[in-house]
Amino acid sequence: MKIGVAALVGGLLGVPGFLCFLLAFGTDYWLLAHEDCVFKQPRTTTYSVAQINSTEASEVEDPNRSFLTLHHEGFFWRCLFQHDSTQHLLLAVLFTNQPRSKECIQGYLFPLPVAVGPVPHNIYDATAVFRGFWTVLIILAVVASVTGGFLLVCAVPFISQKLYRVGGAFLITAGCLFLVLVGLFILWKELVDVRQYILQERGRACPDAHLEAQYGWSFIVAVAGIPLILLSGLLFYCIGRYLQRDI
């Protein structure tokens, strides 16, 4: 009875933590930033669906509204688009608010830029070694959490002490890996010249551009999942040790 209750509590902690990890890995909102560097093309805004239905989709200049260029990035994509400067940065990246004109490029080597042209390049960041560590850690963390969850699903019906211990160890490993990669991300965000990274070549045209960067939804979700997955892993590991002692 005690084992069943402990396993239930571990599952209630582990499932949300696992979903947090998958959501953080699959969404591209680890870094949010907006800047006022003016595009070469005119600032535009797209009208409502009702207006689009009556005519072809068109973008009309609105001189009464100011716009900023918003950047958001994750493991898979790096995107930018224009948004109303009166809108809060976190709200501007909600799925319902993003325009169809958003430009995205593949960002598998996030969070640091790939040098354009020959290396060494004038925008090449010497801390690019973080990119490799970040990429490897996030993949290993997701694989560890998936493996641990699969082993624990198999352990519950068979009351297998070995599967409980191994599954719990995988969850603890996943939590520690996410803790390390979140720490690497914080170090990169706080210590590296984020302005140079965001603007890159465009910064030459806007040397006085104002930029604000902050942590996004994906980062917050990842941080929230760490204690949940660690507690779940520790609980399942303890269950396995308890069963092993009673054999």
UniProtKB/TrEMBL annotation:
One of its GO terms (cellular component) is membrane. It holds the Pfam family Claudin_2. It is found in: Membrane. Its main location: membrane. The chain crosses the membrane at residues 133-159, 166-188, 217-239. Keywords: Membrane, Transmembrane, Transmembrane helix. InterPro entries: PMP22/EMP/MP20/Claudin, TMEM182. It is a multi-pass membrane protein. Coiled coil: none annotated. The keyword Methyltransferase does not apply. PANTHER family: TRANSMEMBRANE PROTEIN 182 (PTHR32012:SF2), TRANSMEMBRANE PROTEIN 182-RELATED (PTHR32012). This is Transmembrane protein 182 isoform X1. The lineage of its organism: Eukaryota, Metazoa, Chordata, Craniata, Vertebrata.
